[in-house]
Design brief:
- The structure is a single chain.
- With about 110 residues, the chain is mostly helical.
- It is built from four helices and two strands, in the order H-E-E-H-H-H.
- Strand 1 (about 45) and strand 2 (about 50-55) form a beta hairpin.
- The model is unreliable at about 1-15 (pLDDT under 50).
Length: about 110
């Protein structure tokens, strides 16, 4: 392996790392805004007020959630606001996202004191 390939590999790793960081930051902002109900997942409701996510909002984790019914019309809406769904949506690790959210909340508390 020569010096040029080492530099190229480190540059690629830096780009991948920066991209993951930006995805993680987007995921944190998305989770916080959905938790505070400042933002809502994309989707629509039918006449019976059953909410379903838009195609780009659906993830593999959504298949394990009960199908919306008249008794439980918001089951998927509630799921789409969870950390599991948002981690899948932004393709970040769930525990990494949880840590980042907790660190963000701690930083807010420190700034308020």
């Amino acid at each position: 392996m020569n010096a040029i390939s080492i530099v190229e590999n480190s540059a690629v790793k830096a780009i991948i790392s920066a991209n993951q960081d930006s995805q993680l930051n987007k995921a944190v902002r998305c989770f916080i805004s959905r938790q505070n109900r400042d933002a809502h997942p994309d989707g629509s409701s039918d006449r019976a007020k059953r909410w379903v996510p838009a195609a780009h909002e659906k993830c593999e984790c959504c298949t394990r959630i009960r199908t919306p019914s008249r008794s439980f019309p918001l089951s998927l809406l509630t799921h789409c606001c969870t950390i599991i769904h948002i981690a899948n949506l932004f393709d970040v690790d769930k525990s990494t996202l949880r840590q980042a959210v907790n660190n963000y909340k701690k930083s807010l508390k420190v700034n308020q004191d």
